[in-house]
User: What shape does this take?
Amino acid sequence: MLVLQGYILTSEIDGTIQMKSYLIGHHGIKLALNEDITIGRGESSVYGYSSTSSGTIILDDCDFHESVHLDNFDSDRTLSLVPSDGECSVMNYRMTHEFKPPFRIKALIEEARALQAEVIIKLRVEFPSSATANTILVQIPLPSSTSR
Assistant: This one.
């Protein structure tokens, strides 16, 4: 997300559905996704769903783990798979259309003295208190000459 003086210029979400499995044996599982998910841009998606209805989540593209079966994905938005032991990425996806960001970030950079600056970051939550967010990561690119 690129912000200039409080205005969003571009936004993008790169996401992953990660799964940890410790099932013994070869048990098949099903993951149900939101029925409003549409894959692909334009009037109709790759899987035949309209991308013009409100509340639709439009994914520009996605790819699935090799063990995922998409047999029922068109009809009921379920992914069937026999997970391998441990952790794997079930699905990777990307969104680039306009959306309301879940956070607002304000940065204040002040020059403290020669060759020293102070960076103050404020992160404001933009979703209801009934929702939660876990594992939030804020990355701030700094020049390679930065020592700490």
Q: What stands out?
A: DSSP finds one helix and twelve strands in the chain. The longest helix spans residues 73-76.
